[in-house]
Design a protein that fits this description.
Blueprint lengths: L1 E4 L5 E4 L4 H9 L9 H15 L2 H8 L3 H16 L2 H5 L2
Antiparallel strand pairs: 1-2
């Protein structure tokens, strides 16, 4: 699990998507590894719905966009591994 800092000292704890959740994303036409710009926003929303509770999603809607992007990237890194982390294992 990873913790991502958001404004006012709050943090969001993120974890990896399950295999079943990744399959559902792909069934909906999203391959998180290779998204077009047009798909990215919808894929982010779908990922948040699967990985975060409703209160956290609402809180992210009030944050600057880079914060939401950092949370999404953290979920993807937990799910697929971050290249720098894989390199050192």
């Amino acid at each position: 699990m990873r913790e991502i800092k958001i404004s006012e000292g709050k943090t969001i704890e993120v974890k990896a998507l399950t295999r079943g959740q990744v399959k559902k994303l792909r069934e909906k036409g999203f391959n998180p590894i290779s998204l077009t710009k047009e798909q990215a926003e919808d894929a982010m929303d779908e990922t948040f719905t699967m990985a975060l509770d409703a209160d956290t999603i609402t809180a992210l809607d009030d944050e600057p966009y880079p914060v939401s992007l950092a949370v999404w990237r953290a979920i993807l890194a937990e799910t697929y591994g971050a290249p720098a982390e894989e390199k050192n294992s």
